[in-house]
Amino acid sequence: MKPTWFADVSLLLVALIWGATFVLVQNAISFLEPLSFNAVRFTLAAILLGFWLLLFERQQLKMFSIKLLTSGIMIGICLFIGYAFQTLGLVYTTSSKAGFITGLSVVLVPLFTVLIFKHKLGVNSYLGAAAATAGLYLLTLTDIASLNMGDGFILICAVGFAFHILMTGKYSSHYPSLLLTVVQIATVALLSGALAWLFEDWKQAFNPAVLLSPEVAAALLVTAVFATALAFLIQTNFQKYTSATRVALIFAMEPVFAAITGYFWAGDRLSYSAALGCLFIFLGMVAAELPSSVLDRWRKKFNLHVKKGADSEV
């Protein structure tokens, strides 16, 4: 399997993990406030990866530098902005609108790639982004006519996630994956803890009755190990083999997996429009995976067919 394809499959696994744990997180934050939950989650993940680094990958410590630290902190800040503003926005807006606006990172990544990084994109990337955006709308059936302050916070969240993908793509090929992942996750843990101390009842994060409750304990275990430590290590390690736009389209599958797991685990109903939205997102991801040469051949055949039809009418 080519490195690009293996990277895309690995990143699709990350989207599956995030989507599958959505129900767990929703249940947990009804017992432990969101910023406090994220502080504990990312702290556990940082400790887990830190021990792995010290026990099995100690040679990576020799490559530690101020530039690596700065790069990891920048990636972590982008990730924190995504999580923090998503949490804040959900206080004022609906989860369906939040899901759609967060998913707009699918459009923001290629947009920033062209405007900020001056990289050219293939036709397949634009087609994929358009199809995925349409799919996200159908999946959530967002009422864009009634925007509020919370939607603005969610838009900032989408920008944060978009820059996290772009920054990871920029720095992941220059530094050891595990060491860079530890720095970014520790950054999110520290910032989440600081805001939890300012705006939440942070003492609940140290309350054994809360932490050891089945809902919170299960969610923390699964999200810290799989949805944080493993997921971001995979992203940091494999994003160097693919493009940021393709990563954004692959991650657009997260709400699809969330809808599917919600259907099976939580009894959520999947409407016809939601099912069609899932299909559009999947087709958008497939379009992004197609080589530009394939699309060019299809376009030439289509133009030739149209030309023959016009000639026959004459």
UniProtKB/TrEMBL annotation:
It is found in: Cell membrane. GO terms for cellular component: plasma membrane. The chain crosses the membrane at residues 35-56, 68-92, 98-117, 124-141, 147-166, 178-199, 211-234, 246-266, 272-291. It is a multi-pass membrane protein. Coiled coil: none annotated. Residues 6-140, 149-286 form the EamA domain. It holds the Pfam family EamA. Keywords: Cell membrane, Membrane, Transmembrane, Transmembrane helix. Signal peptide: none annotated. It comes from the Bacteria. Belongs to the EamA transporter family. PANTHER family: EAMA DOMAIN-CONTAINING PROTEIN, OS03G0707200 PROTEIN-RELATED. This is Drug/metabolite transporter (DMT)-like permease.
